[in-house]
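Customer ticket, subject: "Can you confirm the structure for Uracil-DNA glycosylase?"

Message body: Hello, I'm evaluating your service for our small team and ran a test protein. I'd like someone to confirm that this is what the system normally returns, since I don't have a reference to compare against.
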Amino acid sequence: MGGSWRAALDKEFMKPYFQKLKEFLIAEHRAHTVYPKLNDVYSWSRLTPLDSVKAVILGQDPYHNVGQAHGLSFSVLPPTKLPGSLRNIYKQLSTDIPTFKVPTSGDLTPMAKAGVLWLNTCLTVRAHNANSHSKKGWEKFTDAVIRAVLDRPDGRGVVFFAWGLPAQKLYDRLGIDEHLVLRSPHPSPLSAHRGFLGNAHFKKANEWLRKTHGEEIDWMALSPVPPSGAGRHILTT
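Agent reply: Thanks for trying us out. I re-ran your input and got the following:
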């Protein structure tokens, strides 16, 4: 785990729920294949230090097939085909940012380094068995991750992307104030047409960050070939 997050979450590791979670995970690894691989479970914490978080994009469960999950929500490593939800995320990005070029890769590491915390509510899953590690303790831990963002000493505002009812209910339960919460249906192909596509969330996030903190997220970090002579932060107005 990245040092800034370990310092903020240190007390969680000694709590009874986390000890039970560890015992469960040890048993799971002995009997089954578990994703992501061990050194990727906390990759989000190394790629996005606590003090660098500008936005939180919450998923639910890691991808559970071979070569997919690597510790960031919605993200997959090459040569894995883009999942439907990620294709819709890219589609909305290209709408909000006309200069954005849709990548062929589903690796969201550049965005994590740019301050976007791609976090799942459960950090592990049994291979080919969706939600198999839900309600085992990860949800309490990832609640603590979000509280750590809310409790940062600098008090800087963060954009929380609430895509789908589970994410919206979680943010409501934690009582997020003085931050921007952007709500819409989930980007899944089953629901994206109900309001995710067209939500302008990426544009709205940068508008709020510029107004509130004089900064923005470099969504173009994902674009494979920046247009010649174009800036990296151009948005529609």
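A couple of notes from the result: The first helix runs from residue 3 to 9. The CA atoms of residues 122 and 134 lie 6 Å apart. Feel free to reply with more questions.
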